[in-house]
Design a protein that fits this description.
single chain; 294 residues; alpha+beta; two-stranded antiparallel ribbon; 11 helices; 9 strands; 48% helix; globular
């Protein structure tokens, strides 16, 4: 079902000259693992141009197909590395559209984020995504980019910096084995991206060559933080900055939301249903937008 929705939307985007790259979980499951069922994934992650006109066009096409959005795309001031969240008509699929392949939450500069993202676009490979009723040519990251940028740097530069998942070990193992990537070659590529320190931090925690995996965030987060400092970054400072920024974005909403929260609390205290007091705060795009494409 997920693949059917994705292929249908990608086909329409292609018709309107909107290029995207599939990456992370969905891409790995369908293009790198022997069977998609071997790799669980939640959201479908895509990389799209950071041009706001292209983003608007992509969202418009999706809406015309019956998809929904949560208004994130309408406020560029809130954009991070993500620019839009799309929900399939039946609500079974969520697509996260990224303008950058790497999170900015550790203080990564826009310039470096663009360089890494441009690298992924430049090296992207054509693949055919096939389902029962559809098929389409699409783009996925090249092997070294999938391993170093989309996985290792993405994890270490992300908001949960140092918070690795069990899937990281298996994803790395699949890519390394399938494309016969050596430790020396991987380090050389990371150094060419000026991210050697961060790659070493990832390897300290996740290393299929040495069959090593550490998932305790109290330990791994400090390992990553120490290496990030060598590149002038900090997950702690970056996360604090984004939380403060988000706090000031939400302040204007407090006067209007507090009465509903209080009413919901009272309903809960009296064993009532608090949900009716919060219905007004659901997405305004619950119904698909029906319009002609032309």
């Amino acid at each position: 079902v997920v693949k059917e929705h994705v292929i249908q939307l990608l086909s329409l985007w292609k018709k309107y000259d909107i290029s995207v790259i599939l990456f992370k979980g969905f891409s790995l499951a369908h293009f790198e693992y022997q069977e998609p069922s071997e790799r669980f994934h939640g959201d479908v992650d895509i990389l799209i141009s950071e041009d706001s006109a292209i983003i608007d066009r992509a969202v418009g096409v999706a809406l015309a197909l019956g998809w929904r959005v949560d208004d994130f795309n309408h406020n560029p001031k809130r954009w991070t590395h993500e620019v839009a969240h799309l929900y399939s008509p039946d609500g079974l699929v969520r697509i996260d559209a990224h303008r950058f392949v790497i999170s900015l939450s550790t203080g990564l500069s826009l310039e470096k984020a663009r360089i890494l993202t441009h690298t992924v676009w430049k090296n992207a490979k054509d693949r055919t995504l096939v389902s029962k009723n559809w098929q389409i040519q699409t783009l996925i990251p090249a092997p070294y980019d999938a391993l170093i940028i989309c996985q290792a740097l993405n994890r270490c530069y992300g908001g949960a910096s140092g918070g690795f998942k069990a899937a990281d070990y298996f994803d790395s193992s699949v890519l390394i084995k399938r494309y016969q990537i050596s430790q020396e070659e991987a380090l050389a590529y990371a150094n060419s991206l000026r991210a050697g320190s961060t790659w070493k931090a990832f390897q300290t925690c996740i290393n299929p060559w040495d069959k090593r995996v550490h998932l305790n965030p109290q330990w791994t987060a400090q390992i990553v933080e120490n290496k990030l400092k060598q590149e002038g970054l900090s997950s702690k400072k970056g996360l604090a900055f984004h939380r403060i920024k988000r706090f000031f974005e939400l302040i204007p909403l407090l006067p209007s939301v507090i009465p509903d929260l209080f009413a919901a609390w009272k309903a809960y205290q009296s064993s009532g249903d608090p949900r009716q007091n919060l219905e007004l705060w659901q997405s305004q795009h619950q119904k698909p937008v029906q319009t002609r494409l032309g």
